[in-house]
Amino acid sequence: MNSNHITEVSVEKLYKCERCGNMFLTLESAEKCHPDKHCETCGKEMKYNDFWTKCEQCRIALKYAEAKHVKADDYNEPVFANDRYYHDIDELLEYYDGEWDKPDVVYGSVKRYIKIDDAESIVFAAEESVMFDDEPEVFSKDAVAELKNFIDSWNLRHMYEYFEQDDKLIVDMGWHKEKQPKQKGYQR
Ligand SMILES: [Zn+2]
Ligand SMILES: [Zn+2]
């Protein structure tokens, strides 16, 4: 019997990646499968399957360093702390009045508007609601432009503004600079 399509495989050792179960013949390739992961900034070990390249602390630090900073006294727009909206700094002060867990820094906000901005899809939906055999041009480009103009002026008249957290704007509350009240303690 002559089998020229068979090759002998002899395996002395196998390497298994415990993180996924894949098997390898060499240690090098096994190590490349799901290697340890380290923060590219501080080198701290991260979870091997972490999606980020920097650890959470370094990401927060970077965001803080890159953000614009303003003092609470100079900021009159809504602020966000812990994903909660405050109409202004005074409302935040009221909320945290007497609390011990006041954040030192909070996020500023950016103003946005809700508006309708898609005349084409409205016209398209209307056209699609009827099936024609000969596919006529139902609404002309001018007709679409007319609707767009109308929507633009409607948007201006019914502008609904809202505020979104601005991750790039940090409001320093300044509490940490307040003098700590002297503690009545023992002195020996
Ligand atoms: Zn693996
Ligand atoms: Zn780090």
Written account of the structure:
With about 190 residues, this protein is of the alpha+beta class. It is built from five helices and nine strands. The protein has helices at about 25-35, 55-65, 90-95, 120-130, 140-155, and strands at about 15, 25, 35-40, 45, 70, 80, 85, 105-115, 160-170. The strands form four sheets. The chain has a three-stranded mixed β-sheet with strand order 5-9-8. A two-stranded antiparallel ribbon has the order 1-2. The longest helix has 17 residues, at about 140-155. The chain is flat. The mean pLDDT is about 90. The structure holds zinc ion (2 copies). The site of one zinc ion has 6 residues, from loops.
Q: Helical residue percent?
A: 25-40%
Rounded mean pLDDT score? 90
Oligomeric state of this protein: single chain
The number of helical elements comes to 5
* End-to-end separation: 99 Å
Low-confidence stretches: none
* Radius of gyration computed on alpha carbons: 31 Å
- Derived structural class: alpha+beta
What is the chain-wise order of helices and strands? EEHEEHEEEHEHHE
Number of strands: 9
Bound molecules: zinc ion
